[in-house]
């Protein structure tokens, strides 16, 4: 049920997985760090079976064909631009957007900057950037959780993450994802320049301009065992959505929601898209 496709843009060629009829309602799914398109393998297949045209790309730095060297080429402006460029290349005027982790952050900013292009927004784990900023200013717990974002900007991070058989990267996933996916992620990140490209998302600096409220109909899913994002930012997100908002809190699930509970995630997506 899964196809492997290429998406040609001015920035380069994005690799992607896809499923469903070419004329099906389009859905774009954005992966997080340090994953890849196959994070969404289950959801892409289920959406395709249900008549959607689901596409999950390996994003900037993860696709070898779009792997610039400089950190300044991984700003949110570039990442959002990639989303729109891929949608244009696929011939999609409007589409449903799904994101997790860093892909969730890109999805939020796409909804802020291009609300006219989206039917719905569906984000897992990552709170609205305005909600996260508020939590960082007011909640000590969130400040502690987010310290890694600063630590990973250090140039020694690549060496630390890959040493001892990539022990740190393996532990990051908390043994919550499929071993075959973990093996593929580690294989990809060991390619020359791949981990640096992925970490450049953190090194590129803050987005230009302040985050605004989202007018697109939104579903936000947060898990209680998420180590990166606490309840303060999760509950604050509602205050940043004006176009219809659905909040789902899943108990006893880690940060890796789409891979830890793939069937439940697919069901939530189908319900919200309907």
Describe the structure.
This protein has 274 residues and is of the alpha/beta class. It has one domain (3-273): Alpha/Beta hydrolase fold, catalytic domain (Rossmann fold, 3-Layer(aba) Sandwich). Helices cover 42% and strands 19% of the residues. It contains twelve helices and eight strands. The protein has helices at 41-49, 76-89, 102-113, 129-138, 140-145, 147-151, 157-172, 179-189, 194-203, 231-236, 257-260, 262-273; strands at 3-9, 12-19, 25-30, 52-57, 95-100, 118-124, 217-223, 245-250. Strand 7, helix 10 (231-236) and strand 8 form a beta-alpha-beta unit.
Could you give the distance between the termini?
Answer: 22 Å
Helix and strand string, N-terminal first? EEEHEHEHEHHHHHHEHEHH
The proportion of residues forming helix, as a percent range, comes to: 40-55%
Mean pLDDT: 97
What profile does the largest beta sheet have? 8 strands, mixed
Please tell me the total number of domains: 1
Q: Which blocks of ≥5 consecutive residues have pLDDT under 50?
A: none
The CATH architecture comes to 3-Layer(aba) Sandwich
What is the C-level CATH assignment? Alpha Beta
Strand order of the largest sheet: 1-2-4-3-5-6-7-8
**Structural class based on helices, strands and sheet pairing:** alpha/beta
Shape: globular
CATH topology: Rossmann fold
Strand content: 15-25%
Number of strands: 8
Q: Can you identify the CATH superfamily?
A: Alpha/Beta hydrolase fold, catalytic domain
Radius of gyration, whole Å? 17 Å
Q: Please count the helical segments.
A: 12
């Amino acid at each position: 049920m899964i196809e492997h496709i290429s998406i040609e843009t001015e920035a380069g060629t994005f690799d992607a997985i896809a499923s469903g009829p070419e004329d099906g309602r389009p859905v774009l799914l954005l992966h997080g760090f340090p994953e890849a398109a196959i994070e969404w393998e289950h959801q892409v297949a289920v959406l395709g079976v249900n008549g959607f045209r689901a596409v999950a790309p390996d994003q900037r730095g993860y696709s070898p064909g779009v792997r610039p060297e400089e950190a300044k080429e991984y700003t949110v402006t570039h990442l959002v631009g990639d989303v729109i460029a891929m949608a244009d290349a696929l011939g999609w005027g409007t589409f449903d957007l799904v994101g997790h982790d860093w892909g969730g952050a890109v999805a939020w900013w796409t909804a802020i900057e291009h609300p006219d292009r989206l039917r719905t927004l569906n984000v897992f784990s990552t709170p609205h950037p305005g909600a996260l900023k508020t939590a960082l200013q007011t909640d000590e717990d969130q400040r502690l959780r987010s310290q890694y974002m600063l630590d990973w900007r250090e140039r020694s991070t690549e060496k630390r993450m890959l040493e001892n058989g990539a022990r740190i990267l393996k532990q990051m996933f908390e043994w919550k994802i499929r071993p075959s996916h973990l093996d593929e992620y580690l294989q990809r990140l060991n390619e020359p320049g791949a981990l640096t490209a992925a970490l450049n998302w953190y090194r590129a600096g803050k987005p230009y301009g302040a985050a605004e409220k989202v007018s697109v109909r939104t579903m936000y899913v947060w898990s209680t065992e998420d180590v990166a994002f606490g309840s303060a930012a999760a509950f604050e997100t509602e205050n940043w959505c004006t176009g219809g908002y659905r909040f789902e809190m899943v108990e006893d699930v880690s940060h890796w929601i789409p891979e830890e509970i793939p069937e439940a995630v697919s069901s939530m997506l189908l319900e919200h898209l309907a």
